[in-house]
Amino acid sequence: MSAALVTKIQRFSTHDGDGVRTVVFLKGCPLDCKWCHNPETKKAENQLYYVNRLCIGCGACRAACGQDAHAFLPDGRHIYRPEQCALCMKCVSVCPAKAMESVAQVMTAEQIMEIVLRDKPFYGENGGLTLSGGEPLIHADLCVELLECAKKLGMTTAIETSGYASREAVRRVAPLTDCFLWDIKDTDPVRHKENTGADNRLILENLKIADSLGAKTVLRCIVLKGVNAEPAHFRAVSGIYHSLQYCAGVELLPYHTYGGSKREQLDGFDDGNKAWIPAEADLALARDILTENGVPVL
Amino acid sequence: MVFYTPFCEPRPIRLCEETRRFAWESLQGKYGDEARTYNAVSLDHIPGFSELSEVEKYNIAIAEIAKNAPVRICKEEKVCGSATLGGAIDHVVPAFYQGRPVFRSVSHLTLNFATVLKRGVNALENDIIERSKDDTLTDAQKATLDSFQKAIAAMRVYHKRYLQAAKTAKPEAYQALLRVPFAPPRTFFEAVQSLWFTFSFVRLCGNWPGLGRIDEMLGGYLEKDLARGTLTIDEAREILAGFFIKGCEWIQSSPVPGSGDAQHYQNIILGGTNENGEDVTNEVSYLVLDVVEELAISDFPITVRVNSKMPRRFLERVAQVMRHGGGIVAVYNEDLVLQALERIGYDKKEALSFANDGCWEVQIPGKTNFHYVPFDSLRILLNDTLRLNTDSPAHFESIESLYIAFRKNLKNTVDKICADAIKEFADFCEHPEKGVCSVISVFEQDCIQRAKGYQNGGTVYRVVSPHIGGAPDVGNSLLAIQKLVFEEKKVSFDDLMRILQNNWEGAEALRLYALNHYTYYGNDDDEADAYTTRVIDDFGDMVEAWQGKSPIIFTGGVSTFGRQIEWAPFRLATPFGKRKGDILSGNDSPTPGTDTEGATAMIRSYCKADLKKMGTGAALDVKLAPGTLKGENGVAALVALIEGFCRLGGYFMQLDVVDAKTLKRAQENPEAYKTLSVRVSGWNARFVTLDREWQNMIIERTEKNSL
After folding, report:
1. CB pairs A-B closer than 8 Å
2. CA distance B4 to B325
3. What does DSSP assign to residue B394?
C-alpha cells in the first residue's frame, strides 16, 4: 500500500476538472517556481505552519518541545526557531490556538480513498477525483493506486501536473486519467529554467506522450506581467495546442500574490510580487492571440 | 437601477424598463412607506362595539376595512388589488378600537387558492348558503357561517371599489375584474388577476398566507393562451412580474430593526409531482425563475420540489438563479418529504399536493391548520440538566449518564408542549368564538362543510409540531465534555462546570483547545455527528409517541429560523468553547465556525439523522463562495450538490452565496467564521488565517465580483 504526505483533501472543488471533485494535494515538487502559490506543497518533507498572530503566549509549545524551537521574550512574545525544530509536531498537538499546524499528514491510498468516496453521491456522471500537488506524479505508485481505485468505482479522474516527471510515470497514469490539467508555465526555455529551476523540454515531451496515449488535456497557463505576458508566448502556446490531438483548450490563470500569505506562515516572509499581477489588458491580449490562433479559451 | 448580486455575473435583463422601475421603487419601500401613513381603519364610531360578541366584532372589523381601506392603482401595474393598510405589516387585523388592534391575524398556512381559481369565489358563497339551510346547525355554527358569508360580502365591497377605480385607469384589469375572482378565469391574465386579488384581500385583512404551487395553478391557463396565440411568453413574464412586484408592497424604506421578518411568509412552491404522478414543471415555473433572477425579489421565498422526473433544464435554471444569492430559491427533496408525510398519516394522494406554511414547514394547502412550538435544546442541556445557572451545577460520572438525564428533560419539554396543544385545541373546538378569522376559514377546505372556523376544528388536519433548536450545539457540547473530561482528562467535570459558569474566564487556553482541537458536527465525522444525530432521532421518537392520542397530528421539526440570535444573550457558555452571548447553530446547520470541510461534508452530516421523522421539516443552510459557482461547471456543481442532497435523504436546503459583506463580518469576528475558505484559481486558504491586508484584497475582489 503506497502512502504520501497529503497537505489537503479538498472536497466540493469546482475548479479542477468537470463537475464536483475531490482534490488531493500531495506534497513535494521538483520545480522551484518563483511564483508558486501553494508553497506548502514544494518541499518533499513535512513542515510547520506558524501563525504568530494566533499565539496567546500560554507556553504550552515550549513545555512540549524537546528541541528548544520555541522561546518567549521577556515581553511575552513568542519566537519560533525553525532551525532548531525537529518537526516532531508535539507543539501542534498542544497549541490551543492552532498557531502551529502541521502542513501535511502521511496518508495511505486507502485512507485517501475513504475520504474521496464520501462524496460519491455528489459526483454524478462528471465528477470524481483530482490529484494535485506539488507534483503528484513524483508519487507515481500512489497515483496509480488511487486512479485505479477511482476508475473501478465509476468516478472520473483528473491530474493537475507540471508535467515535470519521469516519462514512465506519465505512461503509467495516462490510461487511467480522464483529463490532465497540464501547466505550461512558460514556453521560453531560458526564462523557464531561470524562473522554475528546470528545463521545459521534459514537460513538453511528456505532454506529447500523454497525448499519444489518448489522454485529454487542458493547458493551464499562468499569466505573469513582465515575465510571460507577451504575444510570442501565447503564439507558442497555440502551437503546442495544435500539436496535440486530444487537447480541449487553454485555461488562463492570472498570477496573484495570495501565495505569499502561506509563504509567510512557512518561512516568515512574504514573497508575493505585485508587479507580476497582469492587468485586464494583458489577459485580453492573451485571450485574443489564443482565439485568433484557433485555440479554445476555457 | 442595478439589482444587487454577489455573483460574478450581472443579473440578466428581460423585462421592460417601466416594470423594472416599478420593481426598483417597490423594493426601495415606496409602497410600504405609503401603507404606514394609514395603519388601520377605526372602529371607534361603532355604537356599543366593546359590548359585541367576538364574531360580531370581527365581522364589523372586516366590513370596515373593505369599506374604508385606501384603493391604490399604480401607473405601472398590470393586475389590481392592494393590501394598503400598514397595520397588516404588523400581523394584526388593521381595524383598531381606541387606537389598538382587536384581533391578531393568521399566518403559517397556505390557502386553497387552487379552488378559488377552479370554482370562483361565488361557488364558495353558494356552498355557504347551501350549508346554512341545514336545520340541525347549532347557533354557534349559524353564526360561523354567517361570518363566512360576511367575509365574502366584504371582499365584494372592496372588489366593487376597485372596479370603479380601474374602469378608466386600468381597462384590461377592469375587464378581468368584471369576472374574477368571483367567477373562474378563462385566460392567464384573468387567472393572475384572480389569484392576486384574492391574495391581496386576505392580506389587506392582516393575514400572511403562503401561495403554494403557483406553477401548477397557473400553468394550464398560460399553455392555452400560448397555443391560441393570444399571449406571448414575454407578455406573460411581464404579467407575472407585476404580481411579484405588487407582493413587495409591504417593504418599507426603514423597517423597525430587530424582528428580521422582512418577508411576510408569502411562500411559493415550484415543480413537484401532481396527483397523476407527473412533474408539474411548466412555462410558469420558468417564468417565476426569470422574474426573481432579474429583479432580486426575495419577498416570495421559493422552494422547488426536486424529484427524479424534473427536467434537467429546470434544475439548471434553479442553479443559475441560486448563484445570485439571497437564498431566494431553496429545495425540498420531494421523495423524503412524501415519506415523512405518509408516516404521520396524510393520505398518499393528498400528501402529493404538499406546499408549505409560509416558512418551510410542510403542509397541505387549504387543509392543514398548523402550529409549531419552538424551543431551545441547549438550554435544556446547560440549564435544566447541567444546572449551570444555579449555585450547584450537576455532576455526572459518564457521558451516557449525562445524556440520559438530558433526554429525560428533553422528553419533559416535548410532553408538555404536546399535552398543552391537546388542551388548547380542545378549548378552541369548544369555544368557536375564540380565534375567529373567517376571511381565512372560507378558503380552507371543510370549514364550510363543518361550519367551524379555521382555529376551531374546521380544517381537515390539525398539526402541531414541536421544533427543536440548538441540537448541533447540544451535540457539540456533549462531544467536548466526552473528550475534555472523560477521554483526555484535561479537566475534571466539576472544574469544567465552574469554568463554564465563569464564561471561560481565566481558562482561555482550555477554551481554545476545545474549540480548535476537536472535530464537531458538520464535517462528516461520524463520531462527532453521532451526538447531534442521536439528539434529533430521539426527539423525533418522543414527538411521534404522541400520535394517536388526540385528533392532532404530532410530528417534529428542526428549526431556529432567526431565534439563535434572540436566544444568544440568554444562553450560557458552552463546553465546546463558545462564550455567553455567542451566536450558535441556526436550524439544523453546524455551529458557526465549526465546519471546515465544505458543503458536501455538511450535507452528509445533516443527512445522518432519520429526517423522515421530522414531518414538518429540518432545514440546512449552506453558504458558498461566488467563485465556486462560476461558469457552466458552477451550474453543474450546484445541480450535483442538490442531487446529492436528495440522494442522501436531506429534507430542505437553502443555498446562499457569500458576498463581500460576509467577508467583512468574518474580518470583524474571526471566531465565528473560522471555517470560511476562499479560493482563487488553484490557491485556497482559510480566510481568517490571512492578514488584514490579504483579507482586504479578497474583499475588494469580491466587491468587484471578480473572485
Report:
1. 116
2. 9
3. -
Distance CA B416, CA B464 (A): 12
Phi first, then psi: what are they for A123, rounded to 5°? Answer: -75, -30
Q: Do residue A56 and residue B512 have CB atoms under 8 angstroms apart?
A: yes
H-assigned helices in B109-204: 113-119, 121-132, 139-169, 171-177, 188-204
Question: Of B3, B614, B678, which Cα lies nearest the Cα of B298?
Answer: B3
Instruction: Give the C-alpha distances (Å, rounded to integers) separating B22 from B76, B194, B463, B487.
Output: 6, 21, 39, 62
Alpha-carbon gap: B529 to the closest alpha carbon of chain A (Å): 14
Closest CA to A234 of A290, A182, A183, A288: A290
Q: Which cell is B689 given?
A: 488565517
Distance CA B145, CA B168 (A): 36
**CB of A107 closer than 8 Å to CB of A6:** yes
| Residues pairing with B678 in the sheet | B685
Three-state SS annotation for A135-158: CHHHHHHHHHHHHHHHHHCCCEEE
Q: Which residues of chain B have pLDDT under 50?
A: 258-262, 680-682, 705-707
Are B406 and B143 within 8 A, CB to CB?
A: no
On the CB side of B424, CA atoms within 13 Å amount to 14
- Let me know: does B591 contact B531? Beta carbons within 8 Å: no
Q: Is the dihedral of CA B658, B664, B667, B670 positive or negative?
A: negative
Assess contact for B399 and B476: CB atoms under 8 A.
no
pTM over 0.80: yes
CA B578 to chain centre: 28
Write the burial class of residue B377 (CB in 10 Å: 0-12 exposed, 13-18 middle, 19+ buried): buried
**Whole-Å CA distances, B115 to A109, A145, B195, B361:** 60, 61, 10, 22
Cα A50 to Cα A73: distance, rounded to the nearest angstrom: 17
- Sign, Cα dihedral of B116, B119, B124, B127: negative
- CB B211 within 8 Å of CB B195: yes
pLDDT of residue B36: 95
What is d(CA B139, CA A260) in angstroms, rounded to the nearest whole number? 81
Preceding peptide of B475 cis, ω within 30° = no
| Site from B512, B629, B674, B699 to mutate, A interface, most A CB atoms within 10 angstroms | B512
What does the alpha-carbon distance between residue B19 and residue B604 come to, in Å, rounded to a whole number? 42
**Which residue in A70, A86, A80 sits closest to A268, CA to CA?**
A80
The CA distance from B443 to B195, in Å, is 12
The answer to whether the CB atoms of B683 and A11 lie below 8 A apart is: no
- Over the stretch B148-171, which tens digit does the pLDDT of each residue have? 999 999 999 999 999 999 999 999
pLDDT digits (tens, 9 = 90+) for B574-615: 999 999 988 899 899 999 889 889 899 999 999 999 999 999
With an 8 Å Cβ cutoff, is B608 touching chain A? no
Burial of A66 (0-12, 13-18, 19+ CB in 10 A): exposed
Q: Which residues of B touch A18 (CB under 8 A)?
A: 633, 636
d(CA B77, CA B642): 36
Q: How far apart are CA B640 and CA B130, in angstroms?
A: 53
Does any CB of chain A come closer than 8 Å to the CB of residue B511? yes
- Among A16, A126, A262, the residue with its CB nearest the CB of B685 is A262
Phi, psi of B400 (to 5 degrees): -65, -45
Residue B34, Cβ neighbours under 10 Å: how many?
16
**Is B483 within 8 Å of B557 (Cβ atoms)?**
no
Per-residue pLDDT, B435 = 96
> Sign of the CA dihedral B413, B415, B417, B419?
negative
Burial of B400 (0-12, 13-18, 19+ CB in 10 A): exposed
